[in-house]
């Protein structure tokens, strides 16, 4: 029975955050981006991103070049699609790696507690004592071979994964803590189940769904980090396109050919917006708000 | 007092660990610190001389203590590419980065606080919905995109929409002018960078304050203040804002990390020549000592700011203040 | 009787308050008519969830505007308050009408000093200077018998005990000498030992200032000696109303009787069957047809379940009640007897409890009744 004495909540539902049309548009956009990225080499209208067309030099959108050409006459649409491959790969791979390591650390810390938890979580806190982008820069530098300019796909992915570990470990630990004291876990222990069995059978099934719903938001964060690195020229190197280096490349030409920077900006923004919208909807569904970063 | 002492001890501990890690990084580098100092093309003779010079064959703890002593006395070593003491390089650039972050933080809070209050005061109303939706969009907008769009709109003429020109040539696209040289030019030069850096923070702070205020406005003491006949202004500013602002303060402190990271890229977009700029350049030239010192200074600054915010927090909230007394 | 009409302080006409909720609209206050003379005290009594708090807040117009619909009319001292905006109400709140809230732990702002919380309305409404307001605040704290008032002015609420805090909220409420004071379960959240002190203090202060009071409570014992009149509320409606002595002597409505039974008495035998009223108040999103108390009433008959009894005068001046089979009447006796025969559970409970009471022959003066009040902490009536 609703308590008539209780004041009705003034908190409104923010429009477009329920699994309504906005959620499905977001999912649709992500599907298109993922599809294009995966199939880029085989899709006929995605051209070679390094093919030079002297007729399209800094040209605006046209039938031949949907989003125009860059300062080398390369097809901007194709470069954005190929750039998306890098962003999405690093985004998904780093979050997966970060989830695996951070998840392991978090679950074991939250389950075993004690000195192990203190040591491990202090280590995570020390990592969080470095501002994220600065740590990323340092990691990319120290992980790359000397002499190599910027990073390779591998070093950037590794650096960003390391970056993601402490935050993900904290969240997983918090989620584990809420379950580790529940009756079903105690019951399983009392029946003589091994730690491994309890973790795999009792804890993981409860911790994984909220973590998974968090992953889309994490991918967005990682894509921004990679974008920043590649804008600075420290991610995967030109001429291979990434969203970040496309924007950096267009930056000095904003006055004469703004589309070179603005189209990648727009695509990146819409992708991040879609990830956040979809991620937020999923997160709300699994209600892991209290486990916020 | 007891609490403060414990926090100070913790602070010193974290600083030691951070500095030790940074020290280890330079020593575990491929090729060792001699290459960090002399670069990749040093002759074997020079390397041998340096190793002896720096007592590199001493055990790590001894060397760490010595290095820490030097660092504490302001000696961070010599940049081999710029032929200048690292400490001097940093000292030249720190003011630029600090002003940028200060302006961004002030701008972000200055915009977010009134917006958050207004949105919460009429939660669910059109203003709230507009502000909340905009904030959600802003959160998906990396600061380098904001910077590029701002430059496009306000530095290089903008674009014309149906014959109406949106934007113009109001602010310089690059370069730093110090306050001492020309205050108006200083603010003109800093406006777009600060705004680009502040944009995301505005959204974070506004959303946080809004939801805190909405919760606070449900409290009994707000009903009590209303029953006293206090005007809405007083209720919002005196009774609701203060209890709602503590978590804002905490997050503003934590966000200094994001601000530092953002400053690195914003400085580089607007060519301001700050610490971030120095860091990126040294990464390209592999000037390891500069990289390490910069990272160290940044991390120490971040840790100290968080400590200060934590302390300030307990000074401002009477409930926590008394628990500690 | 003089032909001149006694001027009324408060007139409430057909007040109804509806909340929009997920379960449909909830009519928390459903057509209440009330009036109150200057300097008198009215008790509003009912279980938690019966709409007492909402009624008090509706009269004060303190409810949030979004999602709340208010019908009817409220006049204070002849002035119609019905259509006033929140801004206009700031001239009424605190000055003409004030309120003491239920829980002093939450009704004082934790981060504003006590002194400020008292002086701000003095300065805003009465235009006092800072020093005048501070002197007045000191006097107010003394008048509510707070020790070391100078020190308290500079303290924060968490440094005070619950009883002290409620004294502070009383000081705040009476600061501008309002004409009408609402006290919403002012002692429910407090320690039993200080409850009577606070109630007496409240009554003293308001008598001295010539303030009328509406005292909202779930406990008939609280209003017994402190009010001139009592209105019993059930499911958003007034079901019986009378001058205090009349109500206790001549109660007609079975719900009032049930409420009275739930007040612990010193004459109760130890471990007596405790009459908390069985069942729960109805869901106000879907109120039952007929009398709303019928599902829990020992006297209920078929008619009660289909036809709502109107609130009608009993014949005793000032006494109104709404019941088809009133307590003490022939119809009521017959109805109860029939229900006992039909094994209607509420009727059986009533009879069983009466038997327990009668069995206790000797008064048990020194027994302490350990069965606590049905204190609905945090839940407002």
Describe it for me?
Chain A has 293 residues and is mainly α. Chain A is 66% helix and 0% strand. Chain A contains 9 helices and no strands. The N terminus and C terminus of chain A are likely disordered. Chain B has 2 domains: 53 residues, no CATH class; 238 residues, Orthogonal Bundle (MetI-like fold). In chain B, the strands form 2 sheets. A two-stranded antiparallel sheet of chain B has the order 1-2. A two-stranded antiparallel ribbon of chain B has the order 3-4. Chain B is flat, with a radius of gyration of 24 Å. Chain C has 381 residues and is of the alpha/beta class. Chain C contains 14 helices and 12 strands. In chain C, strand 1 and strand 2 form a beta hairpin. The radius of gyration of chain C is 22 Å and the shape is globular. Chain C starts with 7 loop residues before the first strand and ends in a 22-residue tail after the last helix. Classes of the chains: A mainly alpha (293), B mainly alpha (325), C alpha/beta (381). At the A-B interface, helix 3, helix 4, helix 7, helix 8 and helix 9 of A face helix 1, helix 6, helix 7, helix 8 and helix 11 of B.
What's the layout of helices and strands?
The complex is a heterotrimer of chains A (293), B (325) and C (381).
Chain A: H1 21-39, H2 76-112, H3 114-128, H4 132-143, H5 153-180, H6 183-190, H7 195-231, H8 243-250, H9 259-286
Chain B: H1 2-28, H2 32-38, H3 44-53, H4 60-72, E1 78-79, E2 84-85, H5 86-121, H6 126-139, H7 143-154, E3 159-161, E4 164-166, H8 183-217, H9 220-227, H10 232-254, H11 256-269, H12 275-285, H13 288-316, H14 318-324
Antiparallel strand pairs in B: 1-2, 3-4
Chain C: E1 8-21, E2 24-37, E3 41-45, H1 52-60, E4 68-76, E5 79-80, H2 86-89, E6 97-100, H3 104-107, H4 114-126, H5 130-143, H6 149-153, H7 162-174, E7 180-184, H8 192-209, E8 212-217, H9 220-224, E9 229-234, E10 237-243, H10 244-250, H11 254-261, H12 302-306, E11 312-313, E12 320-321, H13 330-341, H14 345-359
Parallel strand pairs in C: 3-8, 3-9, 6-7, 7-8
Antiparallel strand pairs in C: 1-2, 1-4, 4-5, 9-10, 10-12, 11-12
Helix pairs in contact in C: 4-5, 5-7, 7-8, 13-14
């Amino acid at each position: 029975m609703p308590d008539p004495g209780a004041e009705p909540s003034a908190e409104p539902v923010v429009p477009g955050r329920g699994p309504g049309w906005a959620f499905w548009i977001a999912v649709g956009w992500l599907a298109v981006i993922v599809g294009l990225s995966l199939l880029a080499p085989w899709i006929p209208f995605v051209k070679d991103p390094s093919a030079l067309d002297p007729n399209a030099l800094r040209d605006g959108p046209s039938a031949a070049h949907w989003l125009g050409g860059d300062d080398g006459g390369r097809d901007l649409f194709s470069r954005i699609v190929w750039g998306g491959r890098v962003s999405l790969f690093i985004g998904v791979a780093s979050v997966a790696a970060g989830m695996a390591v951070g998840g392991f650390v978090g679950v074991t810390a939250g389950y075993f507690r004690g000195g192990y938890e203190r040591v491990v979580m202090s280590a995570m806190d020390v990592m969080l004592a470095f501002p994220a982008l600065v740590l990323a820069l340092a990691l990319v530098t120290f992980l790359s071979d000397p002499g190599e300019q910027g990073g390779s796909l591998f070093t950037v992915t590794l650096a960003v994964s390391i970056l993601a570990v402490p935050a993900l470990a904290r969240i997983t630990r918090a989620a584990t803590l809420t379950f580790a004291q529940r009756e079903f876990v105690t019951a399983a222990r009392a029946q003589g189940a091994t730690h491994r069995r309890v973790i795999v059978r009792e804890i993981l099934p409860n911790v994984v769904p909220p973590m998974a719903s968090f992953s889309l938001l994490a991918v967005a964060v990682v894509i921004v980090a990679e974008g920043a690195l590649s804008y600075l020229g420290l991610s995967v190197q030109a001429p291979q396109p990434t969203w970040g280096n496309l924007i950096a490349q267009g930056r000095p030409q904003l006055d004469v050919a703004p589309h070179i920077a603005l189209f990648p900006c727009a695509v990146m923004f819409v992708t991040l917006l879609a990830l956040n919208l979809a991620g937020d909807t999923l997160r709300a569904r699994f209600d892991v708000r209290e486990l916020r970063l | 007092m007891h609490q403060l002492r414990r926090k100070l001890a913790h602070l010193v501990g974290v600083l030691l660990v951070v500095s030790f890690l940074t020290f280890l990084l330079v020593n575990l580098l491929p090729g060792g610190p001699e290459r960090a100092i002399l670069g990749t093309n040093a002759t074997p003779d020079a390397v041998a001389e340096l190793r002896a010079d720096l007592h590199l064959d001493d055990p790590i703890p001894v060397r760490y203590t010595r290095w820490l002593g030097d660092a504490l006395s302001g000696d961070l070593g010599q940049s081999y590419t710029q032929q200048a003491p690292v400490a001097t390089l940093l000292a030249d650039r720190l003011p630029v980065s600090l002003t940028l972050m200060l302006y961004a933080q002030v701008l972000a809070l200055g915009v977010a606080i009134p917006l958050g209050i207004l949105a919460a005061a009429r939660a669910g109303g059109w203003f709230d919905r507009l502000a909340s939706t905009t904030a959600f969009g802003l959160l998906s907008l990396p600061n380098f995109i904001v910077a590029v769009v701002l430059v496009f709109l306000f530095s290089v003429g903008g674009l014309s929409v149906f014959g109406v020109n949106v934007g113009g040539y109001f602010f310089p696209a690059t370069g730093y002018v110090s306050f001492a040289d020309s205050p108006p030019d200083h603010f003109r030069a800093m406006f777009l960078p600060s705004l680009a850096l502040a944009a995301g923070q505005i959204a974070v702070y506004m959303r946080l304050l809004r939801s805190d205020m909405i919760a606070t406005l449900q409290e009994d003491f707000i009903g009590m203040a209303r029953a006293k006949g206090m005007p809405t202004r007083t209720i919002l500013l005196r009774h609701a804002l203060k209890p709602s602002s503590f978590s804002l303060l905490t997050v503003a402190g934590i966000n200094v990390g994001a601000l530092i990271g953002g400053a690195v890229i914003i400085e580089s977009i607007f060519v301001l020549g700050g610490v971030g700029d120095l860091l990126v350049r040294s990464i390209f030239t592999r000037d390891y000592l500069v990289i390490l010192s910069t990272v160290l200074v940044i991390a120490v600054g971040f840790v100290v700011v968080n400590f200060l915010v934590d302390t300030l927090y307990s000074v401002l909230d009477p409930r926590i203040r008394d628990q500690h007394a | 009787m003089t032909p001149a009409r006694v001027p009324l302080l408060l007139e409430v006409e057909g007040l109804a308050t509806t909340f929009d909720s997920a379960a449909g609209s909830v009519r928390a206050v459903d057509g209440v008519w009330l009036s109150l003379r200057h300097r008198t005290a009215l008790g509003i009594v009912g279980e938690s969830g019966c709409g007492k708090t909402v009624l008090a807040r509706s009269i004060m117009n303190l409810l949030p505007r979004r999602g709340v619909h208010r019908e009817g009319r409220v006049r204070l001292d002849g002035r119609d308050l019905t259509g006033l905006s929140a801004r206009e109400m700031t001239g009424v709140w605190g000055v003409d009408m004030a309120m003491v809230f239920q829980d002093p732990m939450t009704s004082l702002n934790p981060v504003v000093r006590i002194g400020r919380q008292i002086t701000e309305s003095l300065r805003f409404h009465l235009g006092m200077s800072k020093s005048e307001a501070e002197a007045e605040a000191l006097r107010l704290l003394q008048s509510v018998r707070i020790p070391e008032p100078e020190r308290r002015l500079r303290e924060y609420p968490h440094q005070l005990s619950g009883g002290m805090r409620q004294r502070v909220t009383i000081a705040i409420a009476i600061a501008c000498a309002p004409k009408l004071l609402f006290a919403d379960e002012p002692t429910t959240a407090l320690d039993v030992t200080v409850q009577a002190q606070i109630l007496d203090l409240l009554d003293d202060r308001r008598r001295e200032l010539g303030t009328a009071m509406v005292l909202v409570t779930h406990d008939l014992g609280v209003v017994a000696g402190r009010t001139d009149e009592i209105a019993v509320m059930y499911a958003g409606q007034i079901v019986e109303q009378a001058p205090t002595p009349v109500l206790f002597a001549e109660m007609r409505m079975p719900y009032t009787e049930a409420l009275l039974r739930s007040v612990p008495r010193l004459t109760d035998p130890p471990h007596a069957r405790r009459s908390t009223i069985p069942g729960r108040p109805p869901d106000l999103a879907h109120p039952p047809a007929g009398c709303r108390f019928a599902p829990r009433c020992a006297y209920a008959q078929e008619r009660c379940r289909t036809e709502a009894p109107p609130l009608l005068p009993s014949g005793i001046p000032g006494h109104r009640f709404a019941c088809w089979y009133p307590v003490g009447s022939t119809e009521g006796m017959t109805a109860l007897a029939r229900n006992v025969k039909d094994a209607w559970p509420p009727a059986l409970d009533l009879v069983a409890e009466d038997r327990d009471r009668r069995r206790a022959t000797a008064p048990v003066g020194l027994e302490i009744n350990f069965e606590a009040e049905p204190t609905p902490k945090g839940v407002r009536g």
